[in-house]
Amino acid sequence: MAGTLIVDKIQVDSGNTFQVLGNTGSVLLSANAAGITFAAGSAAAPSITTSGDTNTGIFFPAADTLAFAEGGTEVGRFDSSGNLGIGTTTPVAGMRFTVVGGGTQISGGTSAQAGFRFQTTSGVASITGINNDNNTFNPISFYTSGTEAARFDANNTLFVGGTSYPSGYSTSIFQRIVTVANGLNATEHFLCNEQRSTTGTENYFRFYRNNSLVGTISNTLSATSYVTSSDYRLKDNVQPMTGALTKVAALKPCTYTWKVDGSAGQGFIAHELQAVVSDAVTGQKDAVDDEGNPVYQGIDTSFLVATLTAAIQEQQAMIKTLQDKVAALEAASS
Known about the structure:
By secondary structure, the chain is an alpha+beta fold. The chain folds into four domains: 5-99, no CATH class; 116-185, no CATH class; 202-234, no CATH class; 244-333, no CATH class. The protein is 12% helix and 31% strand.
């Protein structure tokens, strides 16, 4: 061939291009460049591949773009901005790492070194998580400065500031959020700060049961309200309360000391109050869970307000009757 020199399997053509010949293809080399130049290739026929598996390798689909193929299909690429996309040909603009489809597994992290780390110039925040081959999930943990700060466990419970339930807690009931704090270290469990400076009520929490609103915690510029549903449109068979004074007479207010720290208290014994005003008490006397741990009763004394109000009204009616009788006797004797 005119203008072409062939030495063994090295070919130099008239354009000063070297070509290394082989059984399955060739490699083009530029005589005026320090590197090796490859054809652009495609996902089905990558330009950098291996014998026996020629549809797997590296190719160059566009300017300043590097792509990877497996089995003739593109599986990932670095775009012209240096962003890596896996499972997509269009990494999200401005995102260094984009994964589309399937899941992501990064292993090898320890309690002191997370498997997946996000780092900024001012500090480090890290995330770890493992999905076993048998589809059993270990906790997904969040770290700051090499120390675990929070985790989601296998029951989708979020622990903040701790990794487990309090000692003695029955795990037959799972919580959605468990926070651990030490007040001695100036740590509080929750802080809600509404920035609205104008008058009006803002809700911090809404409570629903079966998709129906049953209560809220809200505040104004100066006070917080703990509100339970009480609209007349939610109620039937509304009747005046009777016999309230008899109920009040049956109440057993008392003083006591708490076993946990010996501090003094006053109020009611739950099961004694339950026998008189059952609405004010939750739980049952001497109840235990499946593991034999006590399930303690509780009291909401706000449910006594209606009974106490009705008792005052009954008592006031009695006082008014006595006053009328005394007035009649004084009039008759004068």
